Amino acid sequence: MKAIGEGKEIDFLAYEPIIELKHINVTFKETDREVHAVDNVSLSVDKGDIFGIVGYSGAGKSTLVRVINLLQRPTTPEAVVKVNGNELLTLSARELREKRRNIGMIFQHFNLMNSLTIADNVNFALRKSGLSKVERTKRVAELLELVGLSDKQHDYPTQLSGGQKQRVGIARALANRPDILISDEATSALDPKTTESILDLLADLNRKLNLTIVLITHEMDAVKHICNRVAVMDNGALVEEGELLQVFSQPRAELTKDFIDTTTHIESSLAVVEKQEIVQNLKAGEVLVKLGYVGETTDQPLITSLYDQFQVSANILFGSLEILQGTPVGNLLVVLSGEPKKTQQALVFMQDHEVAVTVLKSGDKEVKPND
Ligand SMILES: Nc1ncnc2c1ncn2[C@@H]1O[C@H](COP(=O)(O)OP(=O)(O)OP(=O)(O)O)[C@@H](O)[C@H]1O
Hints:
It is built from 14 helices and 14 strands. By secondary structure, it is of the alpha/beta class.
């Protein structure tokens, strides 16, 4: 069994933080109200991470990432905003402009100029690059090839699909060879298949260019697809942060559980499962349990072992299996039945085999929830 986060922790030693935010507060003061959009957030993104920031609309995600390039300044003095080791808050306007070129951004609505061709939209981002006209043309061709749009260079944005427009956005954002790409709801306007192809492109660019990506989204599916780390934001604050596998397999915050449920459906299935006759009429020695598996545990014939060793049978009422970062993560809703003592022993046996066991309902007093 691979310990949660084991692989990344080894990498972690070799990785250095590329973005360090400490004590970030942003308050917008309006005539009739104050909005505390970011509430004392500290986080660190390592070089090469695809770092997801997930939260519902208004949680403060956009405001927080705009702090990374100081498009939005923190509004309290204790803030630290370090990118590539440089404290941006102390830089002059000219130095800051220079550093900002190291951070590309893509957006939900692409922000392309409809009067310019695709090639010229990308070329526009190179106007202050110091490259000659010939070099710029060559670079534009490279970028369009990188995003799979070489054949569209003479087209105009209105001739492209949403996914193609976002590819232009990505090419433009990468024009000045940034180390960091911030994606602010970049797939939110796209259908699921196109979303997947854009996320695959981002994952590919992360590997090929060692590009660090900060991905803001309200879709846990997107995070699950490509992120190695995730932070959950609610009402301006970070309510949870960690490695994808860790957060998915052992979420702490209720909001995180809600987000995970949008992709596993385990909590919402529980409501249906609880109405089933077998669950309504649990007898002595019968329990409804949620079993959570990570890694190789999923491959072990645990359910079979329960019968062989304890004569406890398992009736699987709902199951989900996700592959996250190449590691299987499974969740099952199961009714176990056996001699009360044996059922209890079976639960302990599973816990000993690194299965997260939550007893949701029990048919007798001997097998108590979460003993
Ligand atoms: N310039 C501004 N002036 C006043 N209030 C603002 C400003 N920008 C954002 N807000 C408020 O700050 C809060 C956080 O907004 P923000 O856009 O950062 O959230 P979000 O999580 O990115 O949501 P969305 O995905 O809907 O953009 C919201 O209540 C928003 O109304």
